[in-house]
Write a structure and sequence with these properties.
The structure is a homodimer. Helices cover 43% and strands 19% of the residues of chain A. The two termini of chain A are 23 Å apart. Chain A binds a DNA duplex through helix 8. Chains A, B: InterPro entries: cNMP-bd_dom_sf, Env_Response_Regulators, HTH_CRP, RmlC-like_jellyroll, WH_DNA-bd_sf.
DNA sequence: TCCGGTCGGTGCGGTATGGCACATAAGAAA
DNA sequence: TTTCTTATGTGCCATACCGCACCGACCGGA
């Protein structure tokens, strides 16, 4: 197997499964193309599929009773969406929004839960990811509360950049404002500042990162912390894979989802 | 059994275990008295015990690289602390701080994980709780970002009040300020406003709730949402128990941890 | 009873952001 | 090209909160 499916998955979570576990799992997955702006779930919706990004990424967005929204997490090829399924729940309290278009593996909820029940390894993997998510969301809470917009925006751009292989990002100020929970004019100001410093370049819904190192300077520590959180998990999860760079927590460095 | 231990547990999670599961679990627990201000774990610490509050409560606090802190969740008799253990992790990224003194059951990490591995019912229970936690933390993130201090403080007081059976709360402005992530002077202002409205009364580290309904008015919707989140879980978890009041989501009402 | 420490009240200026509103510009469609 | 739509730039005022600083009030211990 592996040759009978379109292309071998590069989702980092699934990749770390031993061949014996991976094969039957993939047999129940299908490859789908996620499109930009696609809503996989609204708060309260039933979850039909667990989704493992191959080369796309998805935002998890909390919604308050008032309708105010805030992105609390992001899942790219290092993760998955559909966490409640792992916990035996069928509904999502978070909105799931496709932010980066591209292929993903998906598996029906029922099938996913079957596999979970049968494979302790798969379940362990999901648990480790869940632990990351928990820590990451907690951190996001504090970050959104304490850090200035410009730094948070830099962080967000870096995280997104990591998940899109350096392509230009397809997003408007309006959209960014809803992710970061500020008004659009605030984004314009922050973006202008970053652009003036030569860190990014943007025009009508397209942002390109021009100077990663500079952006890292401009971002809050949370970016580095996030990288560490994921690195730690990926190291635990795939000891087989040699993770060349990035191992020490202190110094700033980019996190390459590769 | 149950008569051989000091008193029957009233932790709502454990209570919902069937007798057959509860008995061996409790046999490995010990009752301990949590004291106010006790630090169960600092970020990064190993977790020695899972703790199930009987009549106390514990805050979970996120810490940023800068040292800034923000409370992201609270566990009373409706919950537990030591969630990472459920996920196979041994360390806590969050600080765990005892806020309400009183008895709790605790079980060593190893023993807890043993029970988890053997009892699918226990594990299911923990998963449901974990799901609640995830949703609750996500909501807290948005709440801390969007809502005004006074409303957040009202919410916090209500949540704490629910977990202390109407006793007066032992907390200083200084302390509250670190929970809510604002400076102390801000708490003084908000507290003064609430007191002027006759909702609370305070003096040197002691706060009493004078008018619950009024406080609910003053709090953000997040309080009601929180109650709903927990109610939903507890209903799922203990169908046996007749949960008399509180079932509909819309209207504001207090949540009685009883 | 006095002292020292903790806790709470208050003031002042600074700033990041909100709300609102409108002007401009760049693409897309016609 | 012209027109329309969407995206961005900007201005103005309001305000919630920060940082700092200091004072006064209460409480417990000596």
């Amino acid at each position: 197997m592996g040759s009978t499916i379109p292309f071998s998955p590069t989702n980092r979570l699934l990749d770390s499964l031993p061949e014996k576990e991976k094969e039957p799992f993939l047999a129940d997955c299908e490859t789908v193309e996620m499109t930009f702006g696609q809503l996989l779930a609204e708060p309260g919706d039933n979850i039909s599929y667990a989704v493992f990004p191959l080369d796309c990424f998805i935002s998890l967005i909390a919604t308050l009773a008032s309708g105010d929204q805030l992105e609390v997490s992001m899942a790219g090829k290092e993760g998955m969406v559909g966490i409640p399924l792992v916990l035996g729940a069928q509904t999502s309290a978070l909105q799931m929004l496709v932010q980066g278009a591209g292929p993903a593996l998906r598996i029906s909820s029922a099938s996913f839960q079957n596999h979970l029940a049968r494979s302790p390894i798969l379940e362990g993997l999901m648990k480790r990811y869940l632990n990351v998510l928990l820590n990451q969301i907690s951190q996001s809470a504090a970050c959104a509360h304490y850090h200035a917009l410009e730094a948070r925006m830099a962080r967000w751009l870096l995280m997104t950049h990591d998940r899109t292989h350096g392509e230009q990002l397809h997003l408007t100020h309006e959209f960014l404002s809803s992710m970061l929970g500020v008004r659009r004019a605030g984004i314009t100001l922050a973006a202008t500042a970053l652009q003036r410093r030569g860190l990014i370049n943007y025009q009508r819904g397209r942002i390109t990162v021009q100077n990663r190192a500079g952006l890292e300077e401009a971002s809050c520590q949370c970016y580095a912390t996030d990288c560490d959180i994921y690195d730690e998990m990926l190291e635990q999860v795939s000891r087989r894979t040699s993770i060349s760079e990035s191992s020490h927590a202190q110094d700033k460095r980019s996190f390459h989802f590769g």
